[in-house]
Amino acid sequence: MTKLYVGNLPFTATEEAVNALFSKHGTVEKVSLINDRDTGRPRGFGFVEMSSADASRAMQALNGTDFDGRALKVSEAQERERSGGGRPRR
Q1: 11 — phi, psi (to 5°)?
Q2: Rounded to whole angstroms, how far apart are CA atoms 73 and 79?
Q3: How many structural domains comprise the chain?
Q4: Considering just the CA atoms, what is the radius of gyration of the chain in Å?
Q5: For residue 74, how far is the Cα from the chain centroid?
Q6: What is the distance between the alpha carbons of residues 4 and 59, in angstroms, rounded to a whole number?
């Protein structure tokens, strides 16, 4: 399973619309659009999980393509290090 980062999404994008777009290139296992923690508004990016072969095809086909007037940025998601919350160190 490969997780793709999908950036530059229009704020009106829905998980259903993103799923439909990526489904043209293979089986979509999961779509997660990210919302702002404080306001609940869309942040303009999300993640799509697909099998590795399907993800590779989708990435090549969709990176830079127009989706509701915005050029999508599609790449393999990078694991990010979780920052420890709480007080700053001294």
Answers
A1: -70, -15
A2: 17
A3: 1
A4: 15
A5: 7
A6: 8
Tokens of 57: 């095809």
Strand pairing of 28-35 and 66-67? unpaired
H-type alpha helices, the chain? 15-23, 52-62
Residue 77 or 85, more confident: 77
Q: Given the structure tokens 């043209």, which residue do they identify?
A: 24
Task: Judge whether 49 and 1 are in contact, CB under 8 Å.
Answer: yes
Of 9, 19, 76, 73, the C-alpha closest to 45 is: 9
Mean pLDDT of the chain: 92
State the CATH number of the domain containing residue 31.
Answer: 3.30.70.330
How far is it, in rounded angstroms, from Cα 26 to Cα 72? 18
Mean pLDDT for 35-53 is 96
Contact, 15 vs 31, CB < 8 A? yes
Q: Is residue 81 part of a domain?
A: no
